[in-house]
Specification:
single chain, alpha/beta, seven-stranded parallel beta sheet, Alpha/beta knot
Length: about 180
């Protein structure tokens, strides 16, 4: 199937996208985000607050080894992570429903401004979402349009949708 080894993966060029998990409780969600990050060869994952860290059997169950290939860092405070990413030149967007948010479907119309072509997205806790003080530090909010009776999704599903849409945007701009 022409898969990269972990060593080849680590040496490969990465998509300039980092996922930040802000106090995500479910270890299965964490593992799923690692696996999706691996699939799209993301620049890394930042685990913050109560978010569990590898190695852990429940993370491995859904990550299937992606926790070994994808670069990751831990920050006790999500605010410190966002500040660090901004120092590294990342545009940081919260994935959150808020006033003035940009719909994910609108980024193709030039509504996503990145100074250095590097983007980080913050995904929040399964119940409370992204902490307000973290949202306030971000460069903006991206929102997935939703048309049903519910106005939230599982964090790993959200990560998959957001990573896919942003990957298409980032890789089309790189060509």
């Amino acid at each position: 199937m022409n898969r990269l080894s972990v060593e080849e993966y680590r040496e490969s060029q990465k998509t300039p996208l980092v996922v930040v998990l802000d106090h995500v409780r479910s270890l299965y969600n964490v593992g799923s985000v690692f696996r999706t990050a691996d699939a799209f060869r993301l620049g890394g994952v930042c685990l913050c607050g109560i978010t569990a860290r590898p190695p852990h059997p429940e993370i491995h169950k859904t990550a299937l080894g992606a926790e070994d290939s994808v670069s990751w860092q831990y920050f006790e405070r999500t605010e410190d992570c966002v500040a660090w990413l901004k120092e590294q030149g990342y545009t940081v967007m919260a994935i959150e429903q808020c006033e003035g948010s940009t719909l994910l479907t609108e980024i193709e119309n030039g509504k996503l401004k990145m100074e250095n072509g590097k983007l980080a997205v913050v995904l929040g806790n399964e119940v409370k979402g992204v902490q307000q003080q973290v949202v306030d530090m971000c460069d903006g909010c991206l929102e997935i349009p939703q048309y049903g009776t519910k106005h939230s999704m599982n964090v790993s599903v959200t990560a998959g949708i957001v990573i896919w849409e942003l990957w298409k945007h980032l890789t089309s701009n790189a060509k």
